[in-house]
Amino acid sequence: MMQSSTLSDNLGRRRINKGRGYFWTYLVIAVVFLLLEALGNSVPVKVRSYANDIAAPVLTVLEQPIRITQDGLERLAGVSDIYLENQTLREENERLRQWQETALQLNRENERLKSILKVPGREVPTAATGRVVGASGGAFEQSVVINIGHNDGVRKNAPVVDDGGVVGRIIEVGYLSSRVLLTTDVNSHIPVRLERTDDLAIIEGTNELFIEVKYLPQTVTLEVGDRFLTSGHGGAFPPDLPIAHVVSIIDRQPIVRTTSNIDSLDYVRVMNYQPKLPEETLIDPEDQLEPLPQAGDQEKQDAPTGEGR
After folding, report:
1. Residues 87, 88, 92, 94: what is their CA dihedral angle, to the nearest 10 degrees?
2. What is the pTM of this model?
3. 212/297: higher pLDDT
4. pLDDT tens, position by position, 173-196
5. Which of 17, 34, 49, 306 is most buried (most C-beta within 10 Å)?
6. Beta strand segments in the chain, E
7. Quick count: other Cβ atoms within 10 Å of Cβ 157?
8. Mean pLDDT of the chain, nearest integer
9. How many CA atoms lie within 13 A of 172 on its CB side?
């Protein structure tokens, strides 16, 4: 009995010592990575991208049973509402048929006017569509990991949207995954315009679901339902994308929330957008440089003329 108790005590001490060794090893590695990132070294970013590439396929496989179970429960819960939904859909279809011809006529007229005025299109193609497989929300960061990366055509700083509007932009790109900085992050500052009045402002994240509107003219009074669209200034986002709307006004203070489903993101779309400079801002360097004097020209200028003889 004494030998067995002594053996168990020795094993316990070894485990404790081994655990302490692992703790100090992890602590030293973490401190080294923090110092490298503070000094602007790219090693922590590359390591994080590789880790995301490894974790993304694993998370995708592990989430499948959960999604299948969730879909099955939602189907069972929605069976009783199918009849009522069908009735509502039939009524909506009737109303949509009445507006369909009007919409088609207006679309044809709009296309003719664009061709006459030679207005360039603003449609931005999609680079890739992916699913959110991880999130790192907290007091210091609002970002998500998606299961598409460099191999799918994703580039850094590309805008990311969902069916509601702007989600954020790509800040890290791996081969199989990417990290998206959300519009609710405190480091997110996006130029916008108020759709109703065309006044310009800045949308800033607060690390919460609600965001702040800064630098809006004091003469503008926000109303419930007002929408903010990207202005296109700064070149990070294309213009006219919905990004936020006023959900309520409490004590004359507007409560603004993103139009995208930030709290329940699933599928997102990465836009193949590359900002271009206006033509009037492009400068031809040859027009700005004056020709340098040649050696022969300088000798001609320094040589005395015949008139002084």
Report:
1. 20
2. 0.60
3. 212
4. 999 999 999 999 999 999 999 999
5. 49
6. 126-135, 143-146, 159-161, 166-173, 178-182, 189-194, 200-204, 210-214, 227-230, 242-250, 253-258, 267-271
7. 15
8. 79
9. 23
